[in-house]
Amino acid sequence: MRSLFLLLLLVYLFPSLCWSNNTETIDSLQQVLKNYQTQNNFSNQSKTLLEIGKAYQSVNQQEEALQYLKQARELAKKYDYKEILEQSLKFTAIIYLAKGNYEESYSYQLQRLQISQAQKDSVNIIKSYYDIGSIFFYQEDFHKALKHYRKAMEMAKSLKDSVSLYHSTAAIGSVYGEKKDSILSFSYNLRSLEIAEAIGYKVGVAYSARNVGQNYMAKKKYKNALESFKKSLDIMRELGNVAGEAINLWAIGNVYSKMEQHEPALLHLEEALKLAKQIGDKSHVREMYEDIAEAYFNAGELAKAYQYQKKYVVLKDSLVNEERVKQMSDLQHQNELQQTELEILKKEQQLQNMLKVFLGVSAVLLLMISILLFSRYRLQTQSNAMLAEANKAIQDQNKRLEVTNSDLEKFAYIASHDLKEPLRMIGGYITLIERRYGDNFNDNAKYFMGFIHEAIQRMYQLLDDLLTYSKLNIKEHTYQKANTQEMVSKILQKLQPELIEHQIAVQTDDLPKYLTANEEELKLVFQNLISNAIKFRNKQSPRIDIRCHKNGSYYLFEVKDNGIGIQSEYLDKVFVPFQRLHTRDHYEGNGIGLAICKKVVEQHKGKIWVESAEKKGSTFYFSLPL
């Protein structure tokens, strides 16, 4: 349900993003703008440009909005209109946030914060902290989101700014909801509801009632959840907020579905779908198709369930294809750059050949020396210019390739995250089929069902491993003092059942108690290396030794086993993602554990390698800076 929290954040906290028809307003404002331009009234010009940008934003015409906000910003900078500049930066950041361009949004919010701090404008400083927190919330960096929301909350308390206090409190409740901390989420959501009701802030009451309903849903208190959602729905209808109305109808339908009241569930879900289509919210239309399909399935109307499931798949494929089209466009652009570079180099070669001809002629025809020298000078100048142009093109291409690589890493993370959703649904439907029709299955059918469950579990594990690997590339890394001795002890304690079962002897030397590292990531290294040693153990008297000693400016760690070892030709391949040296019939796993180890160690500015011989065990070494 995270996407619902996100949409409500935009709808409740930025009312200008609600869908409405402001075309008449835009026409009127543009006429006013022409009058101010005729009068050279720059102050009112900048204000009107800002209002036109906000009006375009309200009808979801984002590119037009950005153009007018940019013009307002340029005038505000030129004539030092601080308030107009701050507002233009704010709404530009909000548009980029809605478009999913978090880097641009963050950049504009930082500029806005700097202006507010220079002006000592406490009200706008609070709003900037809040909006920056929302950017991190969208990126699922909940630690930084909480940090900025709390800054906003503390300042709002000191200034007795009730509206800002409400916003920051409600946002913290949403963050804890995403972190699955139901106690803190419920506490902050109730507190925000009390604040909104005390100040008569209807939008806030609706938003917080919605969040409280989500908390009740998580606790399976469906009657309380219905009460909260209906309260939010009534206010949304009163305010004419179509997006908020659709989301609450959707939530109410899902509650009835959980209560197995199929008729009201389908009634509310169908109404929510109608409103979502009306405002062109494709992302939520797709999710509603899926929920309606499940509701019809539970109601026993399998034909309609199939129809809506088919609509869900078609729309999902359409949205995925849009992303692929964008990627293809980027690749085409890269190809054009490469072609340009080749053409430049080809012309350069032609010029060099011409230069050689002229030099040869100059040796024979002395009278042409002056002309040839002049020609050579011109050609050399052109050649240098083209070389400079080629170098610039190559540099630009490298920058685009870096951005593309970053986008691919983010895409891998998002893809592996989103793939869990249909997989979860497949598992749910398989379980439903077994419950309803399992008694009619013959032995072959039961055998096949076992294979399906096993495949689902294996796919889940593969996606979890891919998510872990992708996160290492895209998240921000923080480093602090880590106790490796305590870390390894906890890992061995967790693996104790396997160690006892296989009678594996483990020996650890004194490991560093204070090492600067990312503790969460370093755990992955030890966890994977020790787990590998257990998996590929010697059947007779298995043993694992974990040691560390200082080597110059580095700690050198060793994880040694007396297991099956690795053939020499495969030593360079073990750290490649998804590279498996054995079939799953013999050893489980996805072949990504050692790739994760390599990524973590290199991000810590260290190295990792292995020494091994077949049937003589393996020793994995990795170094970390002191």
Brief overview:
By secondary structure, this protein is an alpha+beta fold.
Helix content percent band: over 70%
> What is the chains' assembly state?
single chain
Most strands sheet: 5 strands, mixed
How many strand segments? 7
Uncertain ranges = 1-21, 324-338
Instruction: Look at the structure and give the mean pLDDT.
Output: 80
Q: Give the strand line-up of the largest sheet.
A: 2-4-5-7-6
**Category by helix and strand content:** alpha+beta
Spell out the helices and strands N to C.
Answer: HHHHHHHHHHHHHHHHHHEHHEEHEEHEE
| Alpha-carbon distance between the two ends | 44 Å
Beta-strand residue fraction: 5-15%
Which terms would index this structure?
626 residues, alpha+beta, Heat Shock Protein 90, 5-stranded mixed sheet, two-stranded antiparallel sheet, 7 strands, globular, disordered N terminus
Account of the protein in words:
- With 626 residues, the chain is of the alpha+beta class.
- Helix content is 74%, strand content 6%.
- It contains 22 helices and seven strands.
- The strands form two sheets. The chain has a five-stranded mixed beta sheet. The chain has a two-stranded antiparallel ribbon with strand order 1-3.
